[in-house]
Amino acid sequence: MSNRAHAATSPARFGLTEERAEEQLRAFGWWQAGGPAEHAADLIGALSRSPDPDLALRGLDRLRDALGDDWAELERAITTEVGVRGRVLGVLGSSTALTDFLAANPNLWRELDGRMPTELPGQDDLIADLLTAVGADPEVGEPGTRDGTTAALPSAEAIRVLKSRYRAWLLRIAAADLAHVVEASLPVPEYEAVTACLSDLAVAALQGALAVGAAEVGPLRCGLAVIAMGKCGARELNYVSDVDVVFVAEPDSELGQATRLASAMMRIAGAACFEVDAALRPEGKAGALVRTLEGHLAYYKRWARTWEFQALLKARPVAGDLELGQRHVDAVRPMVWTAGDRDDFVADVQAMRRRVEEHVPVGLGERELKLGRGGLRDVEFAVQLLQMVHGRTDENLREQSTVDALAALGAGGYVGRADVAELSESYRFLRLLEHRLQLQRLRRTHLFPADDDRASLRWLARACGIRADGRRSSGEVLVAEFRRHANRVRRLHEKLFYRPLLEAVARVPTEELRLTPKAAGQRLAALGYTSPEGALRHIQALTEGMSRRAAIQGALLPVLLDLLASTPDPDGGLLAYRRVSEALADTPWYLRLLRDEGAVAQRLATLLGTAKVIPDLLVRAPEVLRLLADTKELAERDPAEVAQSLRSAVARHADPAQAVIAARSLRRHELLRVACADLLGLIELPAVCHALSSVWSAVLGSAVDAAERAVCAERGARAAKLAVIGMGRLGGDELGYGSDADVLFVCEPLAGFDDSAAVKYASAVAEQVRKLLSAPSQDPALHVDADLRPEGRSGPLARTLESYRSYYAQWGETWEFQALLRARYVAGDAELGERFREMIDPIRYPDGGLDHAEVVKIRRIKARVESERMPKGGDPKMNAKLGRGGLADVEWTLQLLQLQHAHRVPELRTTSTVDGLAAAGAAGLIGPEDVEVLDAAWKLATRARNAVTLVRGKPTDQVPSQGRELAATVRALGYPASMDPGEFVDTYRRTTRRARAAVERLFYA
Asked: Could you tell me which InterPro entries the record lists for this protein (predicted)?
């Protein structure tokens, strides 16, 4: 047998690489010549998915030896029951320590069987089980109180039993936590549920240890309260961790007995479960182990340092005299929320974080999950600082767990929602790594494997549910994810933890500077500015001098710098803000609006940091800024009302050039309003397209009115009626930000004039319209395109209605009839426009549809357009207009159906692509799935084309697939900042790929 053939039939293809793997599998009866035995196929597959298949197989071998005749029961369970298989193999492939424990206590596998509840155990169940195990009665009073329960077993036996039950529960929790890694159908416990359960188990262990200690000490004459601190207090404990506690006792006369009880509890818990650390007590290890409540209060009022109040954030009574413990917490908690009033409070907390970081061993900082840069402490210190600063007045922030506190900070607006989402995601990821590393050997560790330790990286990646992605191994994917999350945490830590220094950064370089320019630049870099030096120059330009304007800018910039930092382009946004501020320097309400309306500042930062088109329009239409404070005014204006207002304003100008300038100004205002509402996610795509089409139609109507007045004045009389017919996207009411206006000009002679005079008059008006609208301007172009007229550019600019009728009857080609499908009256004489529609309906909806030759002709034209008009150098898959599955694909498919069937399906007689697709689906011409696919692709391509035009500040069909423009486009589309922009590229390509497949079936047959 060749090596390749052997590999295909060996256990190696299931990740079992040890030499004895096949021998072991055969001994189990799970392997036969050529592969897994039929009855064991699912089991071998599950083995291959375990974090370490070889380790899991060795563990099963040990269990078989340990169980003897009872092995058959376990074998049957792991072969047939998904839940048992996932839990057992999850543990065996992840933890050598728990495997050792299970091999020593093999019958415990039954606690992992199919009857195990999917939810994790509750604290009451855990306490009852551990107290009962040591011979204490859970129904008697709390251990550690005068009448509390005590252990009946001798100390040595009680410690042994407590250790065994603690490990058994740890095994159950780990099994529930790991099972989904092996069997994806099993539930995935939430991070918060796992840490809460581990904390509850620690509380149960403390109570069990306290019951054993109470039996040793003898009849109690005191009450002892155990206050959990740190992660146990916040119910976010690790698998392996010291449990931080503080002891409170009464009465004062029995502190000696209380101290003996506390010492005994610490010794027993340390021998059975985990180390108990009381170093957070007043005066630390040098202070008394146990104090009265009054003793604690006296110390905290007089001597406590800032970090001690920070530690009290997570204090919670968990064992012993719970009433006394609650009184302690209630008494010290107000002191926590006044600690922020201390001099240098923020500096103290920041210094403490720096000292912690300095204690990380040299060379390990990049791998330290807990204390290193971008580690867990970065999140916790930032959250706790913000809690203690803002929690003085906002009680909603007084949460104990890091994740809950972070969510409260986000809900209260103290931290941006995107930052909360990113920081929470990264914190959970780092905690997951910490849990898996600790589970391996049940050792307290926070050290990420070295880059060259491939075996450890592979195991850790698989234990976390991370697999290879085709280009990279699972270990490489894990390293990339770890670096990404660590870098994100550090960036957000700098942003949040050093936020108080932004005021100094905003005043660079004044006499009150608290940071050197270098340090200020470092802070800006931490916020996400790629050119801190350039940002500092902008800040200096905005704040220099002693004017009131400079003072207001100095107050605004800390907020704006923070807001801009969360946009795709902070540097470009700050430059745009400077441009707008300098252009509007003499506008009295500008800075006042930003200062007094928080929503305006926030929205402006989002707009300036996302789209280049915004500052270009804003300096010429600053009045739109006021609308940012009023969502209804910004997003809910009636396009018909806007159009009427534009026509009325333009009608007041006799000079055609001035009339068009007025029309441009109102269009600029409306274009900016719609763009702002669109970028801020306040209006949907149909409203965007309708508003843009409506304002374009109003501009055309105003230009026609102005041009007619000019031509009449020149010629002395009005010779014809004139109607403007919108074509293409204008006719479909589907204009985008960069679309031209495709039109036809239709005329009809008035009494006393013949057709020739009418055409000359109408052509002169049409030419004047094009000339007026195409005049040079700083605004987005107003290009009127009449190339779809009969004979194209070589034909007359305007024709009479009868001339159009005659041309289409004698010379019209199929593609011209197809173009007429989107023809719609938009300006000029409405009655003439309606008669034009009546004239073309039989042409664009031909009786009997199309014959085969005409269908083939349309397909050939479409194919030629695809091959000849696609821009060179661009990615065809990312071209929104002509790309595969893009706008042209969807529109041509619908238009072919309209030409074929609209004569018998009246609902197809629409210029709207979306409505036409729905009508085709309702008529059974397209299947529901194809309607959904085509509709989704058309909408996504339209939105993407609009977004990239706003981001780049100029019309374009090419959607970026990488870089900052992609990130900005994704944000402009309304996706959250936490989303990887690559996900949008995948979504876009997947959506258009499906649409192209539908087009291949429906259009090209």
From this structure: GlnE, GlnE_rpt_dom, NT_sf, PII_UdlTrfase/GS_AdlTrfase
Model pTM? 0.57
User: Do the Cβ atoms of 209 and 269 come closer than 8 Å?
Assistant: yes
CA atoms within 13 A on the CB side of 318: 32
pLDDT in tens, 620-629: 899 999 999 8
Q: Give the other-Cβ count within 10 Å of 902's Cβ.
A: 24
Q: Which residues contact 257 (CB under 8 A, 6 or more apart)?
A: 217, 220, 221, 222
Helix (H) or strand (E) run with residue 741 in it: strand 741-749
Largest CA distance in the chain: 123
One DSSP character per residue, 612-671 reads THHHHHHTT-TTHHHHTT-HHHHH---HHHHHHHHHHHHHT-SSHHHHHHHHHHHHHHHH
Amino acid 258: pLDDT: 96
Q: What phi, psi does 218 have (nearest 5°)?
A: 105, -170
- Rounded Cα distance between 184 and 178, Å, is 10
What is the crossing angle of helices 454-463 and 474-497, to 10°? 70
Domain ranges of the chain: 346-497, 659-844, 852-1002
Q: How far apart are CA 385 and CA 492, in angstroms?
A: 13
Residue in 738, 869, 892 with CA at minimum distance from that of residue 821: 892
Contacts of 833 (CB under 8 A, 6+ apart): 723, 724, 725, 746, 825, 826
Q: Which fold has domain 852-1002?
A: Four Helix Bundle (Hemerythrin (Met), subunit A) (1.20.120)
User: For 705-757, how does the pLDDT look when each residue is reduced to its tens digit (9 = 90+)?
Assistant: 889 988 998 888 899 999 999 999 999 999 999 888 899 999 999 998 999 99
Q: How far apart, in whole angstroms, are the C-alpha atoms of residue 781 and residue 122?
A: 67
What lies within 8 Å, CB to CB, of 361 at 6+ separation is none
Q: What is the DSSP letter of 122?
A: P
Is-same-fold flag (346-497; 852-1002)?
A: yes
Residues in the chain where the model's pLDDT stays below 70: 1-9, 113-119, 340-347, 393, 412-414, 416, 497-520, 522-523, 546, 548, 551-552, 554-556, 595-596, 598
Q: For residue 579, with 0-12 CB atoms within 10 Å meaning exposed, 13-18 middle and 19 or more buried, which class applies? A: middle
Among residues 386, 496, 333, 311, the alpha carbon closest in space to that of 397 is found at 386
Give the right CATH number for 659-844 from 3.60.20.10, 3.40.50.2300, 3.30.460.10, 3.40.50.1820: 3.30.460.10
β pairing state of 741-749 and 784-785: parallel
